[in-house]
Amino acid sequence: MNIQQLIPYCLLAGLLSFSACESEQVAEMNEAGTELPDGMYPLTFTTVQAVPEGTPQTRVLENLDGTSSKWDGGEVIGVKIGDNGKEGSYALDENGNVTATLPVYWQNTDEQAVYGWYPKENTDVSLTGQDHVSKFPYILKGEGKGKYNDVNGISLSFTHQLAKFRVNLEGTADNLQDAKVSFYGYTSCGNNQGTVTTEGKTKDYLPTQKMNDGYYTAMLAPDDLAQNGNNKFVKIEVNENIYYYNPDIKLVAGNVYTYTVNKVDKPGPTIIDLANSNYTITSSGTYKVTGTISNHQLTVNANATVILDNVTMTHTSSSIIKIQNNATATLELEGTSTLTSTGGVEAPIFPQPNSTVVIQGNGTLNVTGAYACAGIGGGHHEGYIYTYRNAGNIRIFGGTIIAKGGSGAAGIGCGSYGNCGTIEILGGNITAKKGDGWGDSAIGGLQDGMASTTVCEAIILSNCTINLINGTIKAKTITPDINNAEALKAANVTIN
């Protein structure tokens, strides 16, 4: 995939300003290292606005545009003075006011580092469940220096300790806007006063949140993608297809990584090799058949599209394309294809009962059935075993189709024995020829009295031209009435 990487930028967090408490009881102390009375000089602070919204916020929450985070009320941070200082906690309300839930105090007059972190609790932070805004995880850490009596205050600027990864999708895949995107990373990480640890943590695909700007976003623990042994970092699932992308980068804390994956396209067809063996389609997708094929059968057991690209297929003892297990096979015509059965008891294109064949495209299809078998549809019984080869449904939307039945069989519909489901011809130029011998249907059911079960359930016609040779159109119901010129005209049907 061609990926465009944007320059990463720091995630935004609140800026906290600490200042020494002013009191008439505070004496000036100039000597370095002078101890201060315990509990006398509390650390106090006020929030300083440093987020785009313009109002001090206090709880970390992701902006819906995906570019930054903010404080949103109810936050509790941990604070300490010096490396070995006691830990305190401070709660911030929606107005930016600070309440000490466990205050910390200056212990001496030395200049000292002041540390802050969020979350206060030194527990593992889960990185799962990020498909909801409310579940975005955050770890922040701040550090500054000052003295108990700094008039100008002590500034403690918080920065994010996780990395943010964002992906936008472009391509021709259907329903791309409904894609499911996940990133492969640590499912949790340790938090020790704002320091992230991943030792001993497991990895898996983490769900992402689709932001208002269309980017799929998640917070991740720092990681070196080039060294993690997984070349499928970004997982994109759409229309039962899976796409992967792996950027060769190192995820650094506090950075945002924004990518556009611009090749999420419709997958090309799977080329079917029928030259040496039969082939069975067991999963949905698009497949393609080309070349000259003899005595090998294509079986369709799942809803799939099969492109017939200038293919010549013959079989001496069976159907050539069989659709079963209630599947729908869509045959897309490209160029001119010819399917011929010279033996067996099944039509060259044989949709079994409750299955459907759909034929469309701009190409040409010539199909000829063997003795007593339709070109497209059903067959007959085998010897004296009267198990009829009933057919399912047939739908034609376009193309030039010449369908010829064997002796006593329709070009499209029933064989000499057995019935078929609904035939819909909703486009195309169709030539249907009944085989020689008994029967009278070029399209549909024969209904010749020899086999009472030889019946087509229904035929529906529109926007097509039909050329009948050696037979007519027969079914239980036919729409429109083929004997009504006005009805045929209204349906844009021409019958020759």
Helix-strand makeup class: mainly beta
| Unreliable spans | 1-27, 47-59
Number of strands: 47
Q: First CA to last CA: what distance?
A: 53 Å
Instruction: Work out the radius of gyration.
Output: 37 Å
Total count of domains:
3
What portion of residues belong to β-strands? Answer: 35-45%
Mean pLDDT: 85
If helices are DSSP runs of H or I spanning 4 or more residues, what is the number of helices? Answer: 1
Largest sheet: 15 strands, parallel
Helical content class: under 10%
- What is the overall shape? rod-shaped
Notes on the protein architecture:
Helix content is about 0%, strand content about 45%. By secondary structure, it is mainly β. It has three domains: about 10-160, no CATH class; about 165-260, Immunoglobulin-like (Sandwich); about 270-495. The strands form nine sheets. It has a 15-stranded parallel β-sheet that branches. It has an eight-stranded antiparallel β-sheet with strand order 3-2-12-11-9-6-7-8, with no helix packed on it. It has a five-stranded mixed β-sheet with strand order 1-24-13-19-18, with no helix packed on it. The radius of gyration is 37 Å and the shape is rod-shaped. The two termini are about 55 Å apart. Mean pLDDT is about 85; it is low at about 1-25 and about 45-60.
